[in-house]
Each structure stands twice: as C-alpha cells, then as structure tokens.
Design brief:
Elements lengths: L18 H14 L5 H4 L1 H9 L15 E7 L2 E8 L6 E6 L13 H11 L1 E6 L11 H21 L4 E6 L1 H17 L6 E5 L9 H5 L9 H11 L24 E8 L3 H13 L4 E10 L8 H19 L1
Parallel strand pairs: 3-4, 3-5, 5-6, 6-7, 7-8
Antiparallel strand pairs: 1-2, 2-4
Helix pairs in contact: 4-10, 5-6
Length: about 325
C-alpha cells in the first residue's frame, strides 16, 4: 500500500501483494468465470443484474438519506442523487463508473455517505446518459450540465460554493473531461480538487490496457475495446482532448489525487496522467496500491480502506485549504 508520490519498484512486485488482496482477486476471477458479456446479452440486462446485486461487485445498500434533484440538460432532465451532511463544508460532484455503459448514481451510496460523514461534503452523483443507447457526447454533456448547475446553485442549495469533483473508472475520465470543459467553455477554474480513481484517460489505449490480456479480473483488454466502441460510436479522432484528456492542455487545473492498483489494466492511465498533471504546473498526489484490481476500492479489505482513507484526507485538505 502506498500514499506516496514516489515510484518505488517494490510496489509493483508480486511480493508487495498481501495475502488478503490476492484472495480477493482470486475470488473475483472465480466469480466472473463463465459470466456472459454485456455486448452479447445486452447492456440493459447487465444493468438490471447489477441493480439486483448479481455479478462481481458487492451490492451497495441504498441510503435512506439520499434525495434527488432534477436539472435541465441537453437531452432532457438529469437526476442528481444527493447525500449531504448538515452544514456541508463543500460539495463533491461524483461521477460513477461502468465503462460509460453500465452503473448508476444510486449504486455507491456507502461511498457517498462515507465522504459526507468523514469529509463533510455534500455529495452529488450524476445520473448521466449511458452508451450504447446514448454514445458520446451524451454522457459528458450531462456531467458538464451538472457542473454548470452546481457553479450557479451550490451556494443556495448547500450553503457553500467550494466544489470538488471525482469518480471511478469511466467516472474518473468524465471528471477530467468535465474539469477541462468547465475551464475552456465556461471560464471556470474553481474546483478545489479532483479525486480521479483508476480513470481511463487515453481512448487510443495505453500500453497497460493493450497488454493486460484476458484474465477476468474485472476489466480485460477486450472489455476496454467493447466499452470504447459503444461510447465512441462514429468518432474518428480518439486523441481529441474532449475524449482523451491525456492529450489536453492541462495548465491551470486544480490539485488532483490519482489512485490505481498495480493489477489494473488502466495502470498506465493514472501514471501518465499524474505525470502530465504535474508537468503542467499543477499539484498532484499519487496512490499506488499493490495488487489492486480495477474497482478494488469497492471490495472489503485493508487495501480499499487505505485508498479510501487517502481519498478522504485529500478531499478534506483541498476543501479546507
């Protein structure tokens, strides 16, 4: 486990992986063995199964504290799921993962409750439109609309306009895209921090994405290809910074925390993006977690606890700085 910014080679060795983490990974592989692929049975069937708690991810209980705000977007109404403490110290705009194709705003209530309670932030999770029914730019448009709404309404709604942003996997990607859109389209550079958890930042595929292979540890190379095909339907230039933020001008952005496990096909995305974020003159923190699979923060164990504690500390620091 690491919360440091140093590239210690020992973090990437088999010896650094704890017995607990190895057991969790083995259980994931066993649970996914023979499971149908979403592109064969249809995305909606997999979404419904996840909502029932079927599949590799633990079923997250729904929070009785959650409420929904509806805002206007380019494609119609957008639901924002809100879990907030009394007297929030700031707002966390959360964007869920799922390969731009799966997932939902109400499937990580414990994560949002944790941030609300430990960091004191009002958590606002975006129910953005999903591919393949709604390919690019639908999802990014909805996330941008949520950010624009928060900039205008957070003070009135939550008593604070100190905004942070973050998400996991596709949510990490959409968070980076949203930060860039807010700077370039709206002149807003006021985010206090970005919590980017095993995000995808290069839609042309980084070396670790291409090299991961077929081991069913949540995210294979094939999965990445299929998610990208669904999300980028008809797109020609995959290096467009609105698709691949790794290629964007990253100057003048907020502090960021990049979190990734060493057994994640998206490992390079965080390593490369962290380096470019720093090289652009921004503050950044890097958490490398030995043996962590894609999605590891959702599984019980010491590795997830350490990563979540680092995220909480980061969000607390940037909102009180």
């Amino acid at each position: 486990m690491s919360g440091s910014n140093s590239f210690d080679p020992k973090l990437f060795t088999a010896e650094a992986i704890s017995a607990e983490t190895k057991a969790i990974n083995d259980a994931i592989i066993k649970a996914m063995d023979g499971a149908p692929d979403w592109w064969d049975i249809g995305a909606q069937e997999v979404r419904d199964a996840r909502a029932r708690g079927e599949g590799p991810f633990p079923l997250a209980p729904k929070s009785p504290r959650a409420r929904t705000i509806e805002i206007d977007g380019k494609g119609g109404k957008i639901a924002l799921r809100v879990i907030a403490p009394d007297n929030p110290k700031g707002v966390y705009l959360h964007i869920h993962g799922g390969g731009w194709t799966l997932g939902a705003a109400d499937q990580q209530d414990p994560l949002l409750e944790r941030i609300a309670d430990r960091v004191g932030l009002a958590c606002v999770s975006v129910e953005y439109r999903l591919a393949p029914e709604h390919p690019y730019p639908a999802g990014p448009d909805d996330c941008e609309a949520a950010a624009v709404w928060l900039v205008a309404n957070a003070k009135k709604e939550f008593g604070t306009d100190r905004l942070t942003i973050g998400g996991e996997s596709a949510g990490g990607h959409l968070s980076a895209v949203t930060i860039l859109r807010m700077r370039d389209r709206h002149g807003y550079a006021g985010f206090k921090g970005a919590n980017l958890v095993f995000g995808a930042f290069d839609m042309t595929m980084t070396p670790s994405q291409r090299a991961f292979g077929n081991e069913r540890l949540i995210l294979r190379t094939l999965d990445i290809e299929k998610f990208s095909e669904a999300f980028l339907k008809g797109v020609k230039d995959k290096r467009d910074p609105d698709l691949s933020p790794l290629y964007a001008d990253l100057k003048g952005l907020c502090p960021a925390l990049f979190t990734v496990g060493t057994r994640d096909a998206l490992l390079d995305d965080s390593l490369f993006m962290y380096t470019r974020w720093i090289a652009a003159g921004n503050e950044a923190e890097l958490g490398i977690y030995p043996g962590g699979a894609h999605g590891f923060v959702a599984f019980p164990g010491a590795l997830a606890a350490a990563a979540n504690a680092q995220a909480d500390a980061f969000l607390k620091r940037v909102t009180t700085a």
